[in-house]
Amino acid sequence: MNHDKLLWWSFVWSEVRLLIAAVALFIGGVPPALSLAVNIPGALPLVLLGLKLCWIISGLSAAYLLYRWAEHRTLFGKKDTWDSAAFAVMVVSGLNLGFVGLLGQNIGMSISSNYIVFVVVAGLYVVSAIYLHQRWSAHGQKLF
Length: 144
Prior knowledge:
mainly alpha, 77% helix
């Protein structure tokens, strides 16, 4: 896979992950797949393994996006505060999930497990995902 494809997949994965994480926060901090798996006999071990893999991929995707950003120091061809803020939300949340997959510790959830905080962060995730998708689409599906 070349760098352009890897960048594309990392960005798309991170966008979808932001939205799934928002849903998880809206329902109380539980991954949607886990909420469904508890009702299906024998599905829990497979879902837990899948979640762990997805969290690790999320961390790797975020790390790769951060690495590529460090080469350019711009997003969508220019420096913009809103672009940088939304991108930071994407990268930090992805790195956090990567730590969850590797270490089993969710740093964000250890800071606060208050539902109001969850809803605010979920809203931030949704707004960031929509904003980044609009900017990405307007820039010819190119991040840098």
